[in-house]
UniProtKB/TrEMBL annotation:
Coiled-coil ranges from the UniProt annotation: 35-62
Family annotation (PANTHER family): POLYPHOSPHATE:AMP PHOSPHOTRANSFERASE, POLYPHOSPHATE:AMP PHOSPHOTRANSFERASE-RELATED
UniProt cross-references to NCBIfam families, sorted A to Z: PPK2_rel_1 (TIGR03709)
Full protein name: Polyphosphate kinase 2 family protein
Keywords annotated in UniProt: Coiled coil, Kinase, Transferase
MF (Gene Ontology): kinase activity
Pfam families for this protein: PPK2
InterPro entries: P-loop_NTPase, Polyphosphate_phosphotransfera, PPK2-rel_1, PPK2-related
Domain Polyphosphate kinase-2-related per the UniProt entry, residue ranges: 36-269
The organism's taxonomic lineage, starting at the top: Bacteria, Pseudomonadati, Thermodesulfobacteriota, Desulfuromonadia, Geobacterales
Similarity field: Belongs to the polyphosphate kinase 2 (PPK2) family. Class I subfamily.
Length: 298
């Protein structure tokens, strides 16, 4: 294990939820910083970004695996900034980012996985979901009236509907894993007080006014319901093959380091390497060298 991989596991390991049955949200403090300073974390992040660049290049060249990164959080938790900073060194050709808003009429006429299935990453690429099919077990669960818009046959909407959703997602992620798509999921865990602070900054800063809507304030009224939904979701859908990372999000500099470390760890598990060429390719390369050097002499 390389030094950076070992460090990645040290930074991200404490926040990884494998088998989620025993998980409790209160076990992770939103303001946790791992006893690191902001300066130390920034230096580690820079090294991590360089490592990600190299691993992504091998992922793309090998063209065997894909990596799906899912980000979920309450508003103002820092999903966008985490994605922007952590992936800043990645070749855009090898990365795809999709943000899922309220479903359209067309999307509501399909099963809840349909709109995200169309956006899964190709082999050799990193796919990022900013929100995802997990909204079905979060906002739809908190606002039960949204389930009516999905037009499911009434007999299918039972008291077990969320348990069934968990089972469907677990089966889907097992399917992805068996088909070469590694899955890592991040819940950026921000405190209610920090969210309030960031909302006020968006109101006071003209350059950030566009980020704020009254819906953000209204959703705060359901904070406890959301926390219960997140905990239940993580407990039922965090598995060894598709783990959740519950990442402290009150300090963005620490959030970014943990996310970076978790992605490095995920890529290191894939044993990535540049493809080895066969004898025919070696002969082709030798011929190309000969022609190039002969033309240079002329």
């Amino acid at each position: 294990m390389g030094k950076l991989t070992k460090q990645a596991r040290e930074f991200a390991g404490p926040f990884r939820v494998g088998n989620g049955k025993e998980f409790r949200l209160k076990s992770v403090k939103p303001d946790e910083t791992g006893n690191l300073t902001k300066e130390t974390a920034a230096a580690e992040l820079e090294r991590g970004i360089e490592r990600l660049r190299k691993e992504q290049e091998k992922l793309y060249a090998q063209d065997r695996w894909a990596l799906l990164l899912i980000f979920q959080a309450m508003d103002a938790a820092g999903k966008d900034s985490a994605i922007k900073h952590v992936m800043s060194g990645i070749n855009p050709q090898g990365c795809q980012v999709f943000s899922f808003k309220s479903p359209s009429a067309e999307e509501l006429d399909h099963d809840f996985l349909w709109r995200t299935n169309r956006c899964l990453p190709e082999r050799g690429r990193i796919g990022i979901f900013n929100r995802s099919y997990y909204e079905e077990m979060l906002v739809v669960r908190v606002h039960r009236e949204l389930l009516e818009r999905e037009k499911l046959p009434p007999r299918l909407v039972t008291e077990h509907v969320w348990k069934e959703r968990f089972e469907d997602v677990n089966a889907f992620e097992r399917y992805l894993t068996r088909n070469g798509v590694a899955v890592r999921k991040f819940f950026l865990h921000v405190s209610k007080d920090e969210q309030k602070k960031r909302f006020l900054e968006r109101i006071d800063n003209p350059d950030k006014n566009w980020k704020f809507t009254m819906d953000d304030v209204r959703e705060r009224d359901h904070w406890d319901d959301y926390m219960a939904a997140y905990e239940d979701m993580i407990r039922h859908t965090s598995t060894d093959h598709a783990p959740w990372y519950v990442v402290p999000a009150d300090n963005k500099w620490f959030t970014r380091l943990v996310v970076s470390a978790a992605i490095i760890d995920a890529l290191s598990e894939l044993d990535l390497a540049y493809p080895k060429v066969d004898r025919e390719k070696e002969e082709e390369l030798a011929r190309a060298r000969f022609l190039l050097e002969r033309n240079h002499e002329k």
